[in-house]
Design a protein that fits this description.
Oligomer: heterodimer
Number of strands of chain A: 12
Strand content of chain B: under 5%
Number of domains of chain A: 2
Strand content of chain A: 15-25%
Shape of chain A: globular
Number of helices of chain B: 9
Shape of chain B: globular
Structural class of chain A: alpha+beta
Distance between the termini of chain A: 24 Å
Order of helices and strands of chain A: HHHHHEEHEEHEEHEEEEHEEH
Bound molecules: protoporphyrin IX containing FE
Helix content of chain B: over 70%
């Protein structure tokens, strides 16, 4: 796989890569927007992103491709991103995570890296990544429930960590695990799902350029309700793959179990790639709502990230491997 | 000054009539409250949150189910408590359940599916979850239509048999509720348990009655 620098995309390039902005562009945008200080607030960041998009003058076609026809240049507001969450560890209502995550302590935090790697170990979160890896990326998040948000994440590409821990040739999959702390996560006291939450990726998916471990959003540390202090972001997959509050990353040879697949195997598969042609048994996946709007927008194959990811699924029957 | 009353009707000033009026007012207030609260939320409250369509579907669906269950609870509660006047608000409760279910359907057809009949028919054909809800509502239509005094008189005994369909409707609504949940079945389990108790009481009474008759 060719290594792509996130910093060298020409401003005029009209491609799906517009779905992210790198850190430098972010900062530049803040300057353009008038006041650097403004960029430190969610409103400032949203304004800066609008400015950059306008400057690039992306064609209507490209904007629709990357952002959907509606709200194409709008980030979801900070209140929306932090107030509308599926994080059953804090309750099953969308407002529960914001409401009931106050007791959660995301620091100190350590992550165990284990399995088929040359450098296993338990890392303090600050030692898990190199500060130079940190970048900002804007991704659309498509929930399996047919709604979407557009979020400016901060974090690092998982591939950086993968190179550092040196997987062996037996590492075919990466398994992730959420922390289990029923005292701080009230939702874990009811067995709505099998705790702790587990997720997984194929190793090539984990090493894909898009795959991201977020430590923050809107330029701030991750709020508890968004999966503090470390959560996965895989924008071409449904939201439930984005495992939160990660304490374990395990490299292994076999496909790991995943929580929603265990809960309802005929509804949620291991791959969970966004696919408008494969419906959920109870609703269509062809369209979604860009929150907080009420109109429906066409859902794109791989959530609009096909160019970066479809090569990984060549020849696979995506209706079978949903 | 004297108030003229038709022979056979109770004077409006009689205690019985006054109590009935109070009961009716209370019933309208309670049954209309979810609608009033919904209107308040929309105009002055949270606007149904960040995903208004989803929230309105849930709010109207839950209200419909609970008002429907309340209409089924009236006869058992009357028998358990001896509060016979409750019978006077049974039809009203059933009609409100129908009204909430209709609002629920309206949300689905308008701002959820945007009148896309192709999608709606596909939903009906492919998703038992949608089919069961629709069947529940369809069964409520003849009950609502025949809820007038004229129809009650015209149908006589058959009216009672016809209106037993409400149990089938409630069962289908529960199935719809159950199938619609992702993983957290708590609310559906509570509703199913209450419905089971109400239905159980009816069956128990029917068996007793038959035994006494034998
Ligand atoms: C006319 C046909 C109906 C249609 C098309 C319909 C459609 C829907 C839809 C789309 C949902 C949302 C599911 C979700 O996104 O989670 C829903 C939920 C629900 N519906 Fe219906 N429905 C119908 C009839 C009914 C009836 C007659 C009742 C009750 C009397 C009912 C009660 C409910 C309940 C309780 C929920 C779940 C609310 C929750 O989970 O909080 N529905 N319905």
């Amino acid at each position: 796989m060719t290594k792509r620098s996130w910093d060298t995309i020409p401003e005029s390039e009209v491609t799906p890569e517009e779905v992210y902005l790198d850190r430098r562009q972010f900062i530049a945008a803040a300057g353009v927007a008038g006041a650097a200080a403004a960029a430190l607030t969610p409103e400032g960041i949203a304004a800066a992103v609008r400015t950059v998009r306008a400057q690039r003058g992306a064609s209507q076609e490209a904007q629709e491709y990357t952002w959907g026809a509606e709200m194409q240049d709008e980030l979801s507001s900070y209140d929306l991103v932090t107030g509308h969450n599926n994080f059953y560890e804090f309750g099953t209502g969308k407002g529960d995570p914001a409401r009931y995550s106050g007791e959660f302590r995301p620091r100190p935090w350590s992550v165990e890296v284990s399995g088929e790697v040359n450098k296993p170990g338990t890392y303090d979160l600050d030692d898990l990544y190199d500060p130079s890896w940190i970048e900002d990326r804007i991704y659309r998040l498509r929930c399996v429930e047919a709604w979407s948000l557009t979020i400016p994440w901060r974090g690092f590409a998982l591939r950086n960590l993968i190179s550092r821990v040196e997987p062996t040739s037996n590492a075919k999959y990466v398994a992730f695990e959420t922390v289990y702390r029923p005292d701080e996560m009230p939702g874990q006291n009811r067995r709505v799902l099998d705790w702790p939450y587990v997720e997984g990726l194929r190793i090539d998916e984990a090493a894909n350029e898009l795959t991201f471990l977020a430590t923050g959003l809107y330029g701030r540390d991750l709020p508890n309700q968004n999966g503090a202090p470390l959560r996965l972001v895989v924008p071409w997959k449904y939201g439930f793959k984005h495992i939160k509050s990660i304490v374990r990353i395990h490299f292994q040879e076999t496909m790991p179990p995943t929580t929603w697949n265990l809960s309802a195997p005929q509804e949620y598969g291991f791959y969970a790639n966004v696919n408008p042609n494969v419906d959920h048994p109870r609703w269509s996946q062809a369209t979604h709502r860009v929150l907080p709007g009420i109109r429906r927008t066409d859902t794109l194959m791989f959530n609009g990230y096909a160019d970066q990811v479809q090569h990984m699924y060549a020849g696979m029957d995506l209706a079978r491997w949903y | 000054m004297s108030v003229a009353t038709a022979p056979g009707t109770v004077s409006a000033t009689s205690p019985a009539a006054r109590n009935l009026l109070l009961l009716r007012i209370a019933a309208w207030t309670i049954l209309g409250a979810p609608l009033a609260w919904g209107v308040y939320r929309w105009f002055w409250g949270d606007g149904f949150g960040f995903d208004p369509v989803e929230e309105m579907l849930h709010y109207s669906g839950l209200t419909a189910v609970w008002v429907l269950i309340a209409s089924l609870a009236i006869t058992p509660v009357r028998r358990w408590t001896g509060f016979n006047a409750l019978q006077k608000i049974r039809r009203l409760t059933g009609l409100w359940a129908f009204a909430y279910a209709t609002m629920h359907l309206s949300v689905y057809v308008t701002i959820d599916q945007w009148f896309d009949w192709v999608l709606i028919v596909e939903d009906l054909r492919e998703r038992p979850f949608i089919l069961s809800g629709s069947a529940a509502l369809a069964l409520m239509v003849p009950l609502a239509v025949t809820s007038t005094k004229g129809w009650i008189r015209r149908l006589g005994r058959r009216w009672v048999s016809l209106h037993r369909l409400v149990y089938l409707s409630a069962g289908l609504a529960l199935l719809h509720f159950w199938w619609g949940q992702k993983a957290d079945l708590r609310n559906a389990v509570i509703a199913a348990a209450v419905l089971a108790v109400l239905l159980g009481a009816r069956v128990w009474w029917a068996v007793q009655k038959r035994r006494r008759a034998a």
